[in-house]
Design brief:
mainly alpha, about 100 residues, globular
């Protein structure tokens, strides 16, 4: 984290305990779809018009949705979701998202 802050020119210390990592949303592997990711991609597209890729932002959104449902965040929390791109992966996996 310190190297990233230095690179960005941010002169604010970021204590390790201020960062939380939830890696359980990876599933069985990097490009392996999860049920949560499929649900998240469909939900974001239908309700917000936001297209998420299935490898990065789809799984990250699945985590955000799951943590929200579990009550991890307080109403007073500010939550920032970064969409990192990768949209072409969505088209390569279209059968996962088409209705039956």
């Amino acid at each position: 984290m310190e190297k990233i802050a230095d690179y960005l020119g941010v002169n604010v210390p970021i204590p390790q305990e201020a960062v939380s990592l939830f890696d359980e949303y990876l599933g069985e592997g990097y490009t392996v779809p999860t049920a949560g990711m499929i649900e998240a991609v469909k939900l974001a597209a239908r309700t917000e018009g936001i297209l998420l890729d299935p490898t990065y932002t789809g799984k990250a959104m699945a985590g955000l949705i799951d943590l929200t449902r579990k009550g991890y965040f307080k109403k007073s929390d500010n939550v920032l979701f970064l969409h990192t791109g990768g949209l072409p992966g969505l088209y390569a996996n279209m059968p996962l998202f088409l209705e039956d």
